[in-house]
Structure formats: C-alpha cells, structure tokens
Amino acid sequence: MGTRMTAAIVAALMAISLGACDAGINKGGSEPGPTLGGSETGDGVDGAAGRLPFHGSDGWEFQKNMDKSAFGSMKDLCKSETGYYFQFDSSLYYLEGSTGRVTPLCARPDCSHDDKSCDAYAGAYAIWYSGGRLYFAKRDFEEIGGSFTELGKHVYSVNPDGTGRRQVMSLELQPLDGRPLSSFDEPICHRGTVYFVYNGVLYAAPLEGDTAKAERIFGEEYFSGGGTGGYTAYDPGEPHYTLWADGDNVYFMLNVADENGARRDAIYAYDTVEKSVARVWEVPNEDEVGRWETTGVEVTQWYVLNGAIYFYLSGGDYWRTDLATGETVKLADTGDKTLYGTAVFSDEYMCLINDHPMTDPVTGEYWLGTGLREGGDTVFVYRLDGTFIRQLSLTGPWDTLGEISGFYPVFCDEAALYLIADAGQMVPTDFGSQKSRCDVLCRLDLETGEITEAARWQDRT
C-alpha cells in the first residue's frame, strides 16, 4: 500500500524535525502527568464528573475512534475512562477529558520533558489502554560505538500516571539473527488479545502472554533475503496489514492482486468465535462508485461499525457497504462541499476537512495517490449515516498562534474534533528570517464551532 509507506516515512521525518522542540503544554507543561486515584484497579478519577462514555467496563474493547490519525506526528491515541493518551514527537501525553488540559506522562517534578531521559519518552509505534493500564509497542535498539543493533519489538505496560513502566511481552517469534525489522504494521489489542504481524503472517496472543504460543490467523511466511531468515525494513513487496476490530470480528486490510493482476485493497474478517477468515470487502471499482481522484481508500478514511464499513473517497463521495450482503450505498455527495478532503470518524460523526493533496513542485499539479496533504480551513460535519449537520470555519482570532498554514484532523470523540494547527511566527535568523515551527493541538466543538487550544509544541531556534 503506497499511501501507508509514504505516511510512515513522513511520520519518521516529522519526528526527527521535531526532536529539538520545547513542549509548552497549556502553560503548565512542567507539572506531572495525571494523578489517577485507583490506578491499581483502573477505576480512574474518583467521582462521576470527569468520566467519559467508554466501550467495555474493563476497557478491553478495541477503540475504533482512537485508531488512526491523519497527522503523521500524532497518529497513536487511546482512550481511558477520564481522558485520552497520545504520543507526540515520541513522547506520551495525557489529555484530560473534562478540562482539556494536556500533561506529559511523567511524574518527575524536576523533569524538563525535552529529551530521552524523561519518563514520558516512549518512541512507540502503537499504544492502547486495556484493563486500567496503558500499553505501548516499540522497537528496541542497542547502541554501541555509534552503531545500532535491533533487539526486537516489545510491548510495555505503564501505570496511568506514567510510573511503573515494564516490558510485558515480545512480538518476536524467533531470535533476530541480524534480521532487519518491518516498521509498518501496528498491533492492536481487542478483549485482552494482541493481534500482530510477524514475517507477513497475522498472529494473536494474550496480552502479557507468551508470544511463542501465539495463534496463527492468516498469511504465508514472507522472506526477501534482507537478513538471516527475514525481510528488509522497506520492502515494497511485503504484505502490510491495517488492523481493526468490531464486536466478535477482527478485520484486516491487505493490498492484494485480483484475477487480472491489478492490485487493490481488500478487507478480511476473522471471526474470533468460529475461528474462521473470510474476505468481506474490497475497494470498489469505478463502475460501482464512479471515478475518484486518489488511488484507493486511505487508512484514515474507513470505519467499521456493527457489520458495515463506512468509507470516504477523496475526490469522490461518502459511502457505506453492508459487509454481510455486499450492498453499497452512497451516504452523501461530499463533492458538493469539497472535492478533496480527509475524513475522521466516530460512532456518531464523520468529520470532513477540506485539505487537499500536496502540489508536485515540478509539475504544479496535485500530488495524487501519495497520502501527502496540505491543511484545510473548514470542517463539514455529518452524522455517520450521511446526514449533513453543519459547516464550521477554522479561521478566527488566532493571533497567538502566528501564521497558520492549515489544520490537520487527529480524532473525533464526544461531539468534538481534535486537530493540529500548523502555525508559527516569522523570526530573525543569521540568513534573514524564517517561519518557526509550531504545532498546536486544538479542540473544535462540533455543536458551537468554538475552537480552544489544548497544547502547543514550538521551536523558535
């Protein structure tokens, strides 16, 4: 999937570019992370005032609306009973649901939160909240003499306040033996089971369980000779999975070849009760949904709920397919609002922002099919069933943010859309002046249109 590879590379580059940034978090970034009474039991903050609606009393349901972000540096999110956890620039943060206050997930009062010594530093490629604890998966390395040796993929557990970090399981089924690791496929956790990909095969193992006893779900072993018994980190032929879950089913998207050799994205369903796999959906042909401008459905732009997939085609429209019958219906003519855009879903809403593909610097044409976007300034709010609700402008009194290049959607939940504003100020340099880097996390109220700032990360050097 070309869009996934591009997004992964962009995320890595953005993480590097933000490495020197200072985090100014709601003018209180030096304070410790959340103090959650009952952190041993996962009960969250005492009292009902700050509690959020939550799928599963123990927090073990896959969190559909927290799964993906359209912004490369803030793509890892999960929800707790009282707020949200996310990763930005390789560090973990907590966003309190009742106040919108953001704090680094570090309990050290003397910490500056700006380097790898901070307890909030993770370098994760997936995070989730389950059974009252926060988990994240990361690739571990050992540095010796300026060179790095990969130690494998591991899962870590941490208390909701950032303390008590420990490694709880490996996502490797054999010793590395010099084999480079793939960095694309993000594991998910659903009902206490971790679903992960190894050598092109999808496996399932109990959370904090023995990976050596993992259940094989789907796929064939994939080797390309990139290392002893393994594959290279950026092999275009390697199968890449996008994982999802809904009810008793775990879904995964793969890019597969049809009978004519043409490649397209398809979704398979694994029934966790019947232990069976079935192909249930594939990207529609032009004769089914008309012509659209991108090369397929981007990973942030589809959503499975109650046996149906909802998907938005940038350059096309908004659709729904019943996964049991295959019936596809158009839910909204989104082209009436904006030709291009990025959609973000929740169980209640589809929010569409009018961003567009980046422009090819050589041809001046839209850079279609790359997944690279330029930010928008307007949000169109729909019910999940396609009913248009309202149009909200993102322009307003944002003098404190400087020059905003655009907004990028992050996630939608509880009648709010969270976005990143690409902002900054012109500052003098030895070579004249340039725009400083400033990323601002904002909350857009979908009912009133009010925009509030939650956190900002800036670099004025």
What does this structure look like?
By secondary structure, the chain is mainly beta. It has a single domain (2-40, 50-339), classed as 6 Propeller (Neuraminidase), CATH 2.120.10. Helices cover 4% and strands 42% of the residues. The chain is built from two helices and 33 strands. The strands form nine sheets. The chain has a five-stranded antiparallel sheet with strand order 1-33-32-29-28, with no helix packed on it. Strands 2-3-4-5 form a four-stranded antiparallel sheet, with no helix packed on it. It is globular. Mean pLDDT is 79; it is low at 1-33, 35-49 and 227-231.
Instruction: Please state the structural category.
Output: mainly beta
Our measurement of the CA-to-CA distance between the termini, rounded to an integer number of angstroms, reads: 37 Å
Overall form? globular
**Percent of residues in beta strands?**
35-45%
Strand order of the largest sheet: 1-33-32-29-28
Number of helices, where a helix is a run of at least 4 consecutive DSSP H or I residues: 2
Number of strands: 33
**What is the correct CATH architecture?**
6 Propeller
Radius of gyration: 22 Å
* CATH T-level topology: Neuraminidase
Number of domains: 1
CATH class: Mainly Beta
Flag low-confidence runs: 1-33, 35-49, 227-231
Q: Please outline the major beta sheet.
A: 5 strands, antiparallel
Mean pLDDT equals 79
